[in-house]
Amino acid sequence: MSDPRAARVVVIGGGFGGLAAAIRLQCAGYAVTLVEARARLGGRASQHREAGFTFDMGPTLITAPELLDDLWAAAGRSRAADLPLVPLRPFYRLLFPDGSRFDYGAGPEADEEQIARFDPRDVAGYGSFLAASERIYARAFADLAGEPFLTPGAFARVVPELLRLGAAQSVYRFTSRHFHDPRLRAVFSFHPLFIGGNPFRASAIYGIVPYLERQQGVHFAMGGMYTLVEAMERLLCDLGAEVRCGTPVEEIIVKDGRAAGVRLADGEIIPAAAVVANSDVATTYRELIPAAHRPPRTLARLARYRYSMSCFLLYLGLNRTYPQLHHHTVLMPARYREHIHAIFDGHGLPDDLALYMHTPTRTDPTMAPPGCESLYALAPVPHLGRGIDWNHAGDVLRARIIQALEEQVGLDDLESSIVVERRFTPVDFATDLRSHLGAAFSIEPTLLQSAYFRPHNRSRDLPGLYLVGAGTHPGAGLPGVLLSAKITSRLVQEDLRAVRARVYSTAV
Ligand SMILES: Cc1cc2nc3c(=O)[nH]c(=O)nc-3n(C[C@H](O)[C@H](O)[C@H](O)COP(=O)(O)OP(=O)(O)OC[C@H]3O[C@@H](n4cnc5c(N)ncnc54)[C@H](O)[C@@H]3O)c2cc1C
Fold this sequence. Notes:
By secondary structure, this protein is of the alpha/beta class. It has 3 domains: 8-45 and 66-79 and 223-305 and 442-507, FAD/NAD(P)-binding domain, CATH 3.50.50; 106-215, no CATH class; 309-431, no CATH class. It is 38% helix and 18% strand. It contains 17 helices and 19 strands. It has helices at residues 16-27, 66-74, 79-82, 108-118, 121-144, 152-164, 171-176, 182-187, 209-216, 226-238, 281-288, 296-304, 336-345, 390-407, 414-417, 426-431, 478-507, and strands at residues 8-12, 31-35, 47-50, 53-56, 85-87, 92-95, 101-104, 219-221, 242-244, 249-255, 258-264, 269-271, 274-277, 310-318, 328-331, 355-358, 373-381, 418-424, 465-467. The strands form 5 sheets. The protein has a 7-stranded mixed sheet. Strands 9-2-1-13-19 form a 5-stranded parallel sheet, covered by helices on one side. It has a 3-stranded antiparallel sheet with strand order 10-11-12, with no helix packed on it. It is globular and about 75 Å long. Bound molecules: flavin-adenine dinucleotide. Flavin-adenine dinucleotide (FAD) binds next to helix 1, strand 14 and helix 17. Residues 12-18, 35-38, 43-45, 58-61, 194, 248-249, 278-279, 288, 311, 313, 378, 433-434, 440-441, 469-470, 476-478, 481 line the site of flavin-adenine dinucleotide.
C-alpha cells in the first residue's frame, strides 16, 4: 500500500505507456490511480476470446525485452520470473508476389545464404547495413531515446551528429545504399511501418529495427501479448496502485493554471498533484482540456501534424491449421513504393495489398481449440482523413484479403474454414480508442515530427499535465512507449519534488 500522505497522480488510460508510467510512479512513492475508459486494460494491445480462440488484437511482436526488464527492475522484481518470453526463429516469413520468399531472422548464416540467393553482392551489403545501423543504434537509441528534448537547444546539440549518421535520409534510401535487390531493399526497410512510419520519409534513425531484432531477438509471450498487459496490471496492483476500468475521463480539471485532477464521465472528481495522459495526444488537447485552457498554438500544431496510417484487421478462427504459415508472415505488395504512397497519402482503398499475418497457434497451440488455427490478418490502410467510407469498404477489403490469403499465401478453402470472425477498422480506432483520425500509431514518425518536434512528455502549455504513449516522444511501438513512460515519470518526479521544495521553503 502507498503512504496515505503521498501525493496522488492520476494516469488517464491503461495502454502500455500508461501502465508503465503508473508502475514507475507508484514505485517512486506516489499514490497512483489509473483510470481506463474501456472495460479492460491494454489499449491497442487488447484481446478477443471467442469459442476457444484467443486473438491478440494489436501488437504481437516483442522487441527490446531489456526495456521490460528495466521496468520490472524498477519495481524490484524480475520480469523473467513474472513473464517468461519465447524467442522466435525465424522472426518472420516474407512472401513476394513473384513467388520468392525470405525467412528473415533465421540466424546469421541462414540469413546470408538467403540473401546470396537473391543477389550475392548483397551479403556484403548486409554486413555494412548492420554496421551502419549499429552506429545509429548506439547513439540515437541507446543514448538519445531516453532524453526528453524539451528545448530546441537540447535537440540542436545532437543534430550535427544525427546528420553525420545519416538521419536526413529516409530509411529506404539508407537501406538502398547497402542492397541491390529490390526485394531485399523492401525486407530491410519496411520496419517503420510497425510504428506508423513511411519507409520513404521516416528518418534513417528509424531504420535500426533490424539491428535491434538481430541483437535482442523477436519474442512472444505464451498465451499472447495480452499476458504482458496482465503481468503489468498485476505488478501495478501488487505495488498498491488503484486501477479503475470502464471509467472514461471526461475532463482534466484546471485550477490556478495547473492540471489538478480529472472529472470522470459520472461526474466524480479525482484531485491530483499531476495528471499523466496516455489518451491520444490530439484528443487530449482537443477534448479533455477544458475549452478555456486549450492552447491555440498547440491545437494548430496538432492540426498540422501528419498522422500515421490506420489498419484494417481481420481476426479469424479456423477449424483447421495451415502449416505454411509461420508465427509471423508478411505478404509484400506487388509495387512497394506505390503501395506505401497509397496508404499514407492516397485517397480511397489502395489497389494493391500488403498483409501481415499473425498465427500465434504456431508457437502456442492453446490459443485455439485442438487442430484449429487462430489467425489475424492486418492490412495497412489510409486513416479517416482520406475519404474512405468504411461501411462499404470494410466488406470489399475483407473479400480481397480472403482472396489474397487463398491465392497468394496458399490457404486453400480458407473461406469455408472460418468458424469465428471479427474485424477492427479505422472507425474502431477512432471510436473505441479515441484516436484522432483513427490513426493506428498516432503522429507519423518523421524527422520533423520527432524528438523536440513531437509533443513533449511534459505539456508545454499546462503545468501539471504530462503525456505518455505513442503520440509523444520518442514514439509508437512497445519499446517507444516504454521509453516514454520512463521519461515522463522522471519529469513528474522532478517537478513534484520542486513544487514540494517551493512549498516547504515558503512555509519556513
Ligand atoms: C494493429 C497494431 C499492431 C501493432 N503491432 C506492434 C508490435 O507487434 N510490436 C510493437 O512493439 N508495437 C506494435 N504496435 C504499436 C503498439 O501497439 C502501440 O504503439 C502501443 O501499444 C501504444 O500504447 P500507448 O501507451 O500509446 O496506449 P494505447 O494502446 O493507445 O492506449 C491508450 C489507452 O487510453 C485509453 N483512453 C483514451 N481516452 C481515455 C479517456 N478519456 N479516459 C480514460 N481512458 C482513455 C484508451 O481506451 C486506451 O486503453 C501495433 C499497433 C497496432 C495498432
